[in-house]
Amino acid sequence: MSSEPENLINQQFQQTIEQKLPSLVNQLEVLLFVSAVPVSISQLAAALELPGKDIEEGLHFLEAQLKDRGIRLQWHHGRAQLTTAPEFAPAVERFLGLEASSRLSRAALEALAIVAYQQPITRPEIDAIRGVNSDGVLKSLLSKGLIEEAGRAERPGRPILFNTTTDFLGHFGLSSIQELPVIEELRPIYDSQIQHPGSLLKS
Description:
Elements: H1 4-34, E1 39-40, H2 41-48, H3 52-65, E2 71-76, E3 79-84, H4 89-96, H5 106-118, E4 121-122, H6 123-130, H7 135-143, E5 147-152, E6 160-164, H8 166-171, H9 183-195
Antiparallel strand pairs: 1-3, 2-3, 4-6, 5-6
């Protein structure tokens, strides 16, 4: 059983953390804002000269603060980045003059779904699942910034591996790849997009 002095020390320690947290969160927000790429916890810890545990706690606090704002905190492969909320994409596209951007074809959506759920994955593996050559759709997805090369597989020929990107997460309104819906939930959404091309994902 904890003694009264120990309880007092724990309370004081917690109060110190709560007092420092707003300042830490503000600093994290600034660093993420000025970064053009996702940032790791270790990079932020080095910049602020703080333990990684404190940085992670601050990032999750910031993520909760931004949950209902126009800017969101997005996670990608353990790295954090500020991005616009997906529900405001139409306004952003109009402002930036992107409304005429091309939409994804059925083949591209199919290949993108395979990469999202099987990443990292090679082009021959994608071809085997789809039953057709995927060179064209992969080039299209790469040019739109929805997938990226992620090294090479350790096997004969060392084929290129593909992952999804932070742009992919933003387009689909995901904070991290772990938020992908289960496969069974995708069929109605996929069928609806195919029947109504105007609703297809914009690049």
